[in-house]
From TrEMBL:
Gene: COX2
Entry's localization field: Mitochondrion inner membrane
GO biological process: ATP synthesis coupled electron transport
Catalytic activity: 4 Fe(II)-[cytochrome c] + O2 + 8 H(+)(in) = 4 Fe(III)-[cytochrome c] + 2 H2O + 4 H(+)(out)
Essential cofactor(s): Cu cation
Protein name: Cytochrome c oxidase subunit 2
PANTHER family: CYTOCHROME C OXIDASE SUBUNIT 2 (PTHR22888:SF9), CYTOCHROME C OXIDASE, SUBUNIT II (PTHR22888)
Keywords: Copper, Electron transport, Magnesium, Membrane, Metal-binding, Mitochondrion, Mitochondrion inner membrane, Respiratory chain, Translocase, Transmembrane, Transmembrane helix, Transport
Organism of provenance: Pseudorhombus dupliciocellatus
Length: 230
């Protein structure tokens, strides 16, 4: 999860987020090189007293600074398009979960099970246990198995919401009357936090998302226990 004074992105918890982090570093390095070159040219132009007509009027230079930006854009566009297609790729998910946004909580329904669904409310500050995070903890976590493709169906019951977990590289709008979907694979066990990222009313800041990744056997035990309780 994020921490105070953090400059970079959160550590990746899914292969997709790892790809996004690599692309971020790739694009940032290109921006750094361009900025360095431009600053160097500005410094030389301002500080030098020498001029040359081949510099002031050169077909070669004009050709280079026309073609070079196009090459740079291609180097950025191709990896970006690859990740966009990866984000839309959904192949044989092992589990399907439906997330429904309300004002101001989330409901989860495990569609592969007959009676497995629950609401997820934020835990009030006065009810937090030691070690829990204010404004991020929920009374019911969305539990998913590790290393298994999970399809998430997202919609809303009232107004626009957005289901967002930065560590997974997932941000999908929840639109009333429309069903959006995404997929992710949990690469490691852990608890990952997110929040609604679409302004949805007075308590927009108080509908967190908590995803807990566990081994498959633990997930089966959890699902059996939840079904028995309901």
């Amino acid at each position: 999860m994020a921490h105070p004074l953090q400059l970079g992105l959160q550590n990746a918890a899914s292969p997709l987020m790892e790809e996004l982090l690599h692309f971020h570093d790739h694009a940032l390095m290109i921006v750094f090189l361009i900025s360095t070159l431009v600053l160097y040219i500005i410094k030389v132009t301002v500080s030098t007293t020498l001029t040359d007509k081949l510099v002031l009027d050169s077909q070669l230079i004009e050709t280079i600074w026309t073609i070079l930006p196009g090459i740079i854009l291609i180097l950025i566009a191709f990896p970006s398009l690859r990740i966009l297609y990866l984000m839309d790729e959904i192949n044989n998910p092992h589990l399907t979960i439906k997330a429904l946004g309300h004002q101001w909580y989330w409901s989860y329904e495990y569609t592969d099970y007959e009676d497995l669904g629950f609401d997820s409310y934020m835990i009030a500050t006065s009810d937090l246990a030691p070690g829990q995070f204010r404004l991020l903890e929920t009374d019911n976590r969305m539990v998913t198995p590790m290393e298994s493709p999970v399809r998430l169906l997202i919609s809303a019951d009232d107004v626009l919401h957005s289901w967002t977990v930065p560590a997974l590289g997932v941000k999908v709008d929840a639109v009333p009357g429309r069903l959006n979907q995404t997929t992710f694979i949990m690469g490691r066990p852990g608890v990952f936090f997110g929040q609604c990222s679409e302004i949805c009313g007075a308590n927009h800041s108080f509908m967190p998302i908590v995803v807990e990744a566990v081994p498959v056997q633990h997930f089966e035990d959890w699902s059996t226990l939840m079904i028995e309780e309901t």
